[in-house]
Design goal:
By secondary structure, the chain is mainly α. The chain is 72% helix and 0% strand. Helix 1 packs antiparallel against helix 2, helix 2 runs antiparallel to helix 3 and helix 2 crosses helix 12.
Length: 336
């Protein structure tokens, strides 16, 4: 149901021109976006939990879902949908037990995804102006030929740049540990549908990177990473504290994926990358957004259950009533 609703929402966003592009920090249509996200969760749920006696059918379903997410990622110029499905496949393989063949498959798949990284990145680069493309090409020429094919990967590894941002802060404060903890708790509260909170990634770009680079003409959300965020806020103690939070979230996600009731929270962290590239603020924002989506999914599930119950009631009412054995005996005695 979530998958069907998500596909319909994707078609609607494509038809209305509300599809997000690379660099967007807010959604052009948050009402449709929440259903496209739920559709992605539905696809990941099928990849993780779908079972069939025929391997051909099983591989066809998983491959088809990965293809849908790949196409959608190309349309909105994002690698996240496809990489989320790859991670879901890896989790499914790992959950069913590791053998040499499966380990080899994971390694080959990882190499293939790495090879596809530059190809997926080209859809973002293709949106650059001709002048920016020429500047990037001229900068690439300054590196050795053997390194150039990997430059796009290094550039897209935001945590390198975030560590540089922290270095150029030169010990200047960003926010206090108490303020970070307070904001993390506030971000856990789901916002009203359609209301966008000020993302911590945008604040990092404005206040942290903006302290060493002119970001006045750029609005972008950057990944800061828990090491960088923790060190900037509280030094090595902050790194330890944020690492503990990330480890706790990993265990929570694993628990959610095994649950029959709160699995959607686990699927969110399979689809989205906060555990890999965000700090405590980014993780809490994701949890708050997912809680909002869980409420919407629960409402949809209740509506579907009520509709099925209504149809079943009508079917029972329309079915001709047959007398029970006791009623038959009573009728036969009365007839005699």
């Amino acid at each position: 149901m979530l998958l069907v609703g998500g596909v319909l929402a994707q078609i609607a966003m494509f038809a209305t021109g509300d599809i997000g592009k690379a660099g967007d920090v807010t959604s052009t249509n948050p009402y449709l976006e929440i259903f496209t996200t739920l559709g992605t969760f539905g696809a990941l749920g099928l990849i993780l939990y779908y079972r069939h006696s025929s391997n051909f059918v099983l591989f066809s379903v998983i491959g088809g879902l990965m293809l849908i997410e790949l196409v959608w990622g190309i349309v909105e110029q994002s690698k996240t949908p496809f990489l989320g499905t790859v991670l879901a496949v890896i989790i499914r393989i790992g959950a069913s037990g590791i053998s040499r063949a499966r380990a080899a498959g994971i390694v080959v798949g990882g190499v293939a995804v790495g090879a596809m990284f530059s190809w997926l990145q080209s859809f973002k680069v293709g949106t650059l102006t001709a002048q920016a493309a020429m500047q990037a090409a001229s900068a690439d020429l300054e590196y050795p030929p053997g390194v150039r094919p990997f430059l796009s990967i290094f550039r897209r590894f935001d945590l390198f740049e975030a560590a540089t941002d922290v270095y150029y802060m030169n010990g200047r404060p960003w926010i206090s540990p108490a303020e970070l903890a307070h904001r993390a708790v506030i971000d856990l509260i789901p916002s009203q549908l359609g209301v966008t909170k000020y993302p911590s990634g945008v604040e990092w770009a404005t206040n942290v990177r903006g302290s060493s680079v002119d970001m006045s003409q750029v609005t972008v959300s950057l990944a800061e990473g828990h090491f960088n965020e923790g060190y900037l806020v509280a030094g090595y103690a902050g790194v330890f504290a944020e690492s503990f939070v990330v480890l706790a979230m990993i265990f929570l996600v694993a628990r959610c994926l095994r649950s029959r009731h709160i699995y959607l929270l686990g699927l969110a962290f399979v689809e989205l990358p906060p555990l890999f590239e965000r700090g405590v603020l980014g993780i809490s924002e994701t949890v708050g957004k997912t809680l909002q989506q869980m409420v919407v999914a629960a409402i949809v599930a209740l509506a579907v259950a009520q509709y099925r119950s209504f149809r079943a009631h009508r079917a029972r009412a329309a079915r001709p009533q047959t007398p029970s054995t006791t009623e038959r005996v009573v009728l036969e005695n009365a007839h005699v």
